[in-house]
Amino acid sequence: MGNANLYSLLEERFLDAGEAIAFRPVPGEPLSYVGLCAQVARYANALEAEGVALGDRITVQIEKSLDNVFLYLATLKVGAVYQPLNTAYTAAEVDYFISDAKPSLVVCDPSRAESLSPIAAQHGVKAVHTMAPSGEGSLQDLAANQPSDHTTAMRASDDLAGLLYTSGTTGRSKGAMITHDNLSSNALALHRIWHFQAGDVLLHALPIFHVHGLYVALNTAFLNKSEIIWLQKFDANQVLSLLPEATVMMGVPTFYTRLLATAAFNAEACRNIRLFVSGSAPMLAETHVEFEGRTGQRILERYGMTEAGMITSNPYDGERRAGTVGYALPDVSVRIAAEDGTVLEPGDIGVLEAKGPNIFSGYWQMPEKTAEEFRPDGYFITGDMAQIEPDGRVTIVGRSKDLIISGGFNVYPKEVETELDDMPGVGESAVIGVPHPDFGEGVVAVITAQDGQSPEEADIISALSERLAKFKVPKRVFQHAELPRNAMGKVQKAELRAKYGEIFKA
Ligand code: MCA
Ligand code: AMP
């Protein structure tokens, strides 16, 4: 039996690519695929020297860098489980992830070591390392002194490769257990259906702590032995200047609306691009139209989820229809069902369910939650409301889960409401998402005062920023005498969304 370790599949391609450029960081020196292999092997040896064993979790909260990539690949290589965290998360948020994942190693930026070390110690983590060239606990230093060869650990297809937390609608975040087969099947399918080809150059401006930038973008480019233009973050002007050197770009809708807001963005700037991909949040049909008008290119929109990787994609060759997310990936099945699980007919609106090699194996140490999210015949309940045409084309029409997606980052209102309700002076709260010209949806809170107090909006925002990642913090807070409720006592969020629907309009 072969080795199902994703790294073993990637390594074959890397060795084949040889001296070809893997990464071209801007700014920075290019790195070849041979060089990448050597760095990954050094990191793998460093992890093993630290006692990391098969199946151990490695929690990582570091800024985007090539060393971050080496660590991701080395984690796969040694058969451990990669747990990336958004760099915007506060120490209070990270505390929960560490307590739940129980990693054997935490890797963070030096600036976070002081706040994370006591948290890690409290949860019995053996070691905290920093992603720094030198200094106490430097992982880079440890790796630099390791040999550049390493034998990839044997893994079965259902062994875990990643543990990615996704906020729950109720209670705490859940760790989605992602297997080697989930990742390799999805990457191979995308590589094929998006027609990756020799000479492709990927412009990479996404963060790499989520599925989009980490798995979708990197794994497909790796399979293709592509050169990757590596940007620290998305900056519209920088992307604009580098677009002529790339053939493929992937982004969230905010990337594309920001490019459209740049006067110099036109067909000439995109002359060498053969594929723009959008996902992680719905792209407005008008953005698709404006983009095509300006560049002559149609963005290919696809749809996915942390728990499922990519589920559907508009066709590469066929019609890329604005407002739809295309067809199920090869080997993936989708259907529409009612709340009670009754499978509905083409054209009916209901919850989208999906099944296939891309679907995660469950929530970390939450068998009941896992059971709730799957049908008995193995379909995963996505929580997205959709419609499927007779030919299989899927349109996402809404969400049954109470979720806001801001600039491609998910915000669960419940989590923000819990923090608000705990604040002195706040009676109760309702958190909603309303149209935002830059982030797609903007987070807004409505609160009632407690005991005649009248907390200031700025104070609430600043207090929340101490506890929650910046992208979750409401951009506006409004005070009401009471929250609108229906006869059952349920807060009428639709009414609040209608009332505040225009506040971010330019
Ligand atoms: C930054 N801020 C945000 C966001 N990002 N607020 C709301 N939503 C956001 N997404 C805050 C900053 O902290 C700052 O606050 C203020 O907004 C303005 O920051 P700005 O400089 O404009 O932001 P930026 O640094 O340019 O970031 C915007 C961004 C970034 C480039 C759109 O959010 C981004 O890279 N998003 C990509 C998310 C992503 O990769 N998602 C994939 C999930 P202040 O001024 O107060 O300090 S994977 C997934 O969903 C599935 C699997 C899928 O289908 O792909
Ligand atoms: P995440 O939990 O970060 O993986 O976010 C997954 C969610 O993002 C999905 O359940 C959808 O609600 C949303 N999503 C991703 N891609 C699209 C898309 N192209 N159109 C609409 N929603 C999307």
Percent helix? 25-40%
Total helical segments: 15
As for the CATH topology of one domain, it is Rossmann fold
State the major sheet. 9 strands, mixed
Q: Give the second-level CATH assignment, the architecture of one domain.
A: 3-Layer(aba) Sandwich
Spatial arrangement of strands, main beta sheet? 2-1-10-9-11-12-13-14-15
What is the average of the pLDDT values? 96
User: What is the straight-line distance between the termini?
Assistant: 59 Å
- The global form is globular
User: Structural class, from secondary structure content?
Assistant: alpha/beta
Name the beta content range.
Answer: 25-35%
Radius of gyration: 23 Å
List the helices and strands and how they pair.
Elements: H1 6-17, E1 21-26, E2 31-32, H2 33-49, E3 57-61, H3 66-77, E4 81-84, H4 91-101, E5 105-108, H5 110-122, E6 127-130, H6 139-144, E7 160-166, E8 174-179, H7 180-193, E9 201-204, H8 211-223, E10 227-231, H9 236-242, E11 248-251, H10 253-260, E12 275-278, H11 285-295, E13 300-305, E14 309-313, E15 327-328, E16 333-337, E17 349-355, H12 367-373, E18 380-388, E19 394-399, E20 404-406, E21 409-411, H13 413-421, E22 426-436, E23 440-449, H14 457-467, E24 476-480, H15 493-499
Parallel strand pairs: 1-10, 3-4, 3-5, 5-6, 9-10, 9-11, 11-12, 12-13, 23-24
Antiparallel strand pairs: 1-2, 7-8, 13-14, 14-15, 16-17, 17-18, 18-19, 20-21, 22-23
Helix pairs in contact: 1-2, 2-3, 4-5, 7-8, 10-11
Bound molecules: methylmalonyl-coenzyme A and adenosine monophosphate.
